[in-house]
3-dehydroquinate synthase (Paenibacillus haidiansis), 734 residues
Amino acid sequence: MRTLQVDLGERSYPIYIGGGLLSQAGDYFARHGLSAKSPVLIVTDDNVAPLHLKQVEESLRQAGYSTVVKIVPAGEKSKSLDVFEDVMTAAIEGGLDRKSAVVALGGGVVGDLAGFVAASYMRGVPFVQMPTTILAHDSSVGGKVAVNHRLAKNMIGAFYQPEMVLYDVDTLQTLPEREVRAGLAEVVKHGLIWDEAFTSWCREHTAELLALDPEALGYALTKGCEIKAHVVSRDERENGLRAILNLGHTIGHAIEAIAGYGEYLHGEAISIGMAAAALISVNRGADRSLYEETTSILRGFGLPTIMPEQLDEDKIIGAMMHDKKFKEQQLVFILPKSIGKVEIVSDVKVEEVRRVIRELKEEGQHV
Amino acid sequence: MRTLQVDLGERSYPIYIGGGLLSQAGDYFARHGLSAKSPVLIVTDDNVAPLHLKQVEESLRQAGYSTVVKIVPAGEKSKSLDVFEDVMTAAIEGGLDRKSAVVALGGGVVGDLAGFVAASYMRGVPFVQMPTTILAHDSSVGGKVAVNHRLAKNMIGAFYQPEMVLYDVDTLQTLPEREVRAGLAEVVKHGLIWDEAFTSWCREHTAELLALDPEALGYALTKGCEIKAHVVSRDERENGLRAILNLGHTIGHAIEAIAGYGEYLHGEAISIGMAAAALISVNRGADRSLYEETTSILRGFGLPTIMPEQLDEDKIIGAMMHDKKFKEQQLVFILPKSIGKVEIVSDVKVEEVRRVIRELKEEGQHV
């Protein structure tokens, strides 16, 4: 078992990464001083519930906690204000009080949704993350919680830190292959923005990671969380540095928004976004090898790097304009300088984005 | 013009109280460094808009700010997730970015709604309060923002501090009499929890306050804000002391909830709640004069102190159980010890509450 401390002053919290953690949930609750007099709300989805819910409930009950469960439909569509209201109803009807913990048992969608419930219920109650996907290694660090607005992703939310993250890697063994690949996109991203050596390690261990080798996976997730925690602890509320974590996200979010949430997995969309960012850098003078290396790693993980023909250029641009990163009427982009290094650039022209959209569509015709 | 500083470390902010402030809004924005490159969203209601909106918009425009306006229906019903979503839509469609300010121009409902929008839009943007009611002297201090859930009031929200509060007392001259009385209930409450001398002052100046005498009103609002700021700065997130501000609110919120939001004005409901709290104290051994004095002051302002016969006892108790103050399965009550002093009591029995509900219904039969 590895423990990683996310250093945020009085909002610091530990991430426990290892096998068998869900069946020890009750012990961890007690150790962290969570109230056993107040009901605990477990938020999960209908994919995860049959696999892992019983284990968590039993462990909590054995430690003296009463539980209320809310199962939401799996998928990005549950990150809506309607589902948010349903979870709030469950919390109220279940008698949750100000000392009650809200648990996110699931992937990024459940984490974002349950996290915003924890941040908002009675203006904030304790929050515990139990990620069950690879992608959630990313969303479980940093305290960004949110639901979507029909016009733009993650538009309604908060910065809200959990009490702890219990990352039981045993849960990853049941993931569908497409989700494994998409989840690894964020792992690769953490290498690309911060750590050339880790990027090389990812390239060399692609096969082990795709095969869910516990040792390789444990290392990669710890490393990914470490890089993210390192960046977040220096800039909790995204005033500067933290923006580098958005590599691939400006175009990625736009793709997710216009294709309809859920059509592309988040990791797939940001994979295309990272290819696009590398190509903008190349068009601005970086060596073409930057784009080739970036896309070669991503393709190694079976991730898409071309722009699907059916996605309309004007719609992509329009969706980008609604993105939170569109600050003071300027596009803010994270662009790679070399593998393991990025910069925050605020003078990217809309025309440059249009150009790479077209270029990445052409790439598709050659595949 | 009086300036009051609410002392909350890096979240400290000033409250400006005086005449003619709305027409200087633009200057205050510039002075506080709010971005003129980013559109400002003004949230107001259909009562306030015809009276004060133009003034604010013009002042902001003259200082170089572009504005987006969202007018919501007046009344508690606008503190819903549905209206919250509508305001978010206006923010997105208006192109608000992370440096955009959200302005609450109106009373407590608009302040709570717009404040939760500011807290949640892109995970938090600058917030400016421009209260136009007496009641809002209370809600504009302390950073509590929220919308209602159909099962309980203020259930969904955040602690979120404004950049500044511009309290233009000229706006109070247009208030309907019933709102004036209800607003003064919170002024009286601040005296009752903290300051015997100020309570006496309120009793002696009842007529001037009800006549909206600018000098008396300016003094009372500053004093009310001061007491609240004093308490909040010692306990921002309501871990202890801050709870005393809830005098009259446990039963008051229950009355609002079961009568249907909007049937009773907030100040009317907490007036009954304060009478009930005083009577619980008397039933626990305090001198009956505590109840007599409390209700005599409130009645002086034309506020209700008896329990309306049509409000069902079981329903009041049921609604109280859903209240945030119902912590770890215990009722937490704020009870007066003497005029100007209260205590936080966690062992009030449901039976004691049932008794005062009945007693306050009987009082009604003698009036």
User: Anything to note?
Assistant: DSSP finds 14 helices and 13 strands in chain B. Residues 39 and 271 of chain B are 40 Å apart (CA to CA). The mean pLDDT of chain B is 93.
